[in-house]
Amino acid sequence: MFEQTIVQQLKVDVGDELSKSLMNVFINESTKIVEQLLSLPIDDQQVILLSHSLKSSAKTYGALILGNLCEQIEMSAKAGDCDALSQAMADLPDIANKTFSQAIQFT
């Protein structure tokens, strides 16, 4: 679920303790965004904004699978592709849970 080189680079850039703190912030804030996304109708414009935000955060912290899924959500929402958007949104809870469960090892 995580690209180890990105996680390691974060530790090099900010130090071990701060990287642990930042990973906790990522888990907590991203969990809230996922909950918001899942509570919205798929045609809500907030889907684009929230998925974009989560995509950026996930990729910054090395959670590339989650980041790529959020990119699919964002692009599908922008294109108005309801079928692709529905499928990606259906995958979100499982991918997010697996990502956050694995992220705990970095805290």
UniProtKB/TrEMBL annotation:
Single Gene Ontology BP annotation: phosphorelay signal transduction system
Pfam families xrefs: Hpt
Spans through the membrane: none
Domain HPt span(s) in chain numbering: 22-92
Classification via InterPro entries: HPT_dom_sf, Sig_transdc_His_kin_Hpt_dom
Gene Ontology molecular-function annotations: protein kinase activity
Tagged with keyword Lipid metabolism: no
Keyword terms: Two-component regulatory system
SUPFAM superfamilies found in the cross-reference section: Histidine-containing phosphotransfer domain, HPT domain (SSF47226)
Name of the protein in question: HPt domain-containing protein
Organism this protein belongs to: Pseudoalteromonas ulvae
